[in-house]
Amino acid sequence: LRITVWSLCTKSVSYIKYPKACQQGVAFTKDGRYMAVAERRDCKDFISIFVCRNWQLLRHFDTETQDLFGIEWAPNGCVLAAWDTCLEYKVLLYSLDGRLLSSYRAYEWPLGIKSIAWSPSSQFLAIGSFDEKVRILNHVTWKKITELEHPAVITNKKTIVYKEVEKSPTLGTERLSFPPTRALASSLFSTQSKYDICQVPVSLHYIKPVADKANPKVGVGMLAFSADNCFLATKN
């Protein structure tokens, strides 16, 4: 198993050995200068950082993970986040030279991390977990600054809840014809939608996942920061 790097400019080819077959095992910095690769050798996890200009190895270090699941650069390219498999809740933060800056673990035994997202300013790291919560770390101390939940009932009066309402067009019997004209057929199947503001408390409709099957659809699987770092969208 190896990674092949093809240069579209010089048509040269470079090879990187021992890549780990994980979901997010390769990550580039936003400026394209460096590439991090998750590796697996002798039953241990490693990370190699390469300079993209000439594909020279910059740093190679082992990680304190049982089964490294993914890596993600901060947008400023200064910090690399690495996290363990869902069976082990652990986030490790490394500098560009391979130093371990900090590690974070919210709990120990239940299923752990499902998704991770950096804020555009690199000041915050959001961690979505299988316990249906989002934890946000700050870039100064790498400690948790807040914890966000996904309640089934919204009771906070400061929360605005939008509900999509669909409305089908009403047609008089005098307009009906067979076969219908193209314009009439288009109007029959067209719907209009709008968003109404609901009064709290609001009970959210959801489908309870089947927990006794493999890969249950639980946990926060999507995180997205707004461009100004002020808002975070999550999907549980």
Automatic annotation (TrEMBL):
Cellular component, GO annotation: microtubule organizing center; MWP complex
Matching Gene3D superfamilies: YVTN repeat-like/Quinoprotein amine dehydrogenase
Protein's name according to its UniProt entry: WRP73 protein
Lineage: Eukaryota, Metazoa, Chordata, Craniata, Vertebrata
